[in-house]
Fold this protein.
Amino acid sequence: MMAGRQSPARRFAAAPRGAPVRGLGRHGRPARPCMRRARCGNALRKRMENRLRLRVAAGWVQRLRGLLGGPPLRPHEGLWLVPCRAVHTFGMRRTIDVVFLDGRGRALKTAVRLRPNRIALCISAHSVVELPGGYCRRHPGYAAAILRALARR
């Protein structure tokens, strides 16, 4: 037997009577995982997967390129163009949702399912978030999700 490791029988014998033994339940049987904890963990995991993530395009070249030539946006991913007042979809193959934001991150204007070869602008905007097409309709709380994503940056 290796030094520092105890056999299972010795480990159980070393515990005082009535003390919980690691790995065993109340009646000496193997402990079962708490199903409520597992459900809570699954709900938390699902919320984390559905959390909006933003890629930042802050440089001139990054903003000019935008979504052109890059990987397509995943379902809960967006591109934050800062500073920006107008976007175009020339050369794009997919529709996108465009949310124009003021300096504090509040939504000023939303262009839902902006088709290819179109332009959208908002003169009073400070930045723009580009989202996958239909995101704003599928998620009515998209403005709050954008604020939370900006707060994490």
About this structure: The beta strands are 53-57, 77-81, 86-88, 96-101, 107-114, 119-121, 127-132. The two ends are 52 Å apart (CA to CA). The first strand starts at residue 53 and ends at 57. The chain is about 30% helix and 25% strand.
